[in-house]
Design goal:
By secondary structure, the protein is α/β, with parallel strands linked by helices. The chain is about 50% helix and about 15% strand. It is elongated and about 75 Å long.
Amino acid sequence: MDPDLASRILHRVRFGVRLLLLLLLLCGALVTSASYMPSPRTVEQFRSAVAAGEVDRVSYQEFGADELAALVWSESPLVWHEVQGSIADSEGPYTTERLRADMRRASVRPSLMEERGGGPVVNNSIFPDWPFGFRGGSNLWWIAAVWVVTFVAMLFSTPRLANRWAWFWMFTVGQIGAFLFLITEPRPLWKGPGEGLAPTNRIEGSRGCLYSIALSFVSLAAVLGAGQLIKLVLG
């Protein structure tokens, strides 16, 4: 095979893989963002949806022995609801026992998870929470897999914009470093397939750590903004 042709094919394959990983990460981020901004519903609406088999995932928090402090559920990956205020219906307080009984009677049983600590489960490590945890039961393994593949690709590459330590901080503390890496390394996506660009004035680890703190605020704003937009459109 002509070496130039083989090189062009390789560049196009790498470009396609980067695009695929980026799109999967974006989908994962949107799904996670939606779960943080549920729209308000009543207990009656929740019970009707469960009975009709329309509920996919349920997260709840207990207050005391059997009372519910929070109830959140999804009807699709991007559609999340919650009961605000007092969690009760015409029959009285909606307890954990009643919730589990409704789950058992559901035509399609949703996954069920108890949340602790006042919100979605966090992993309490330096690594970002959103690829590795998802509300309402089993995690979405493909989000974590795509993030890990991108992280490993960074570790075994020679980035041009920042060294590996800087990218490490932006991947972890910065939360959205994986997106930036796929967009910019080793050649910006908007330049199309081709040879990677030569490294110039790379960001060092200490500066990358500072940037990652700023990125963490940007990522928080992006998550809340995306979640609010999804809530307005689909909620």
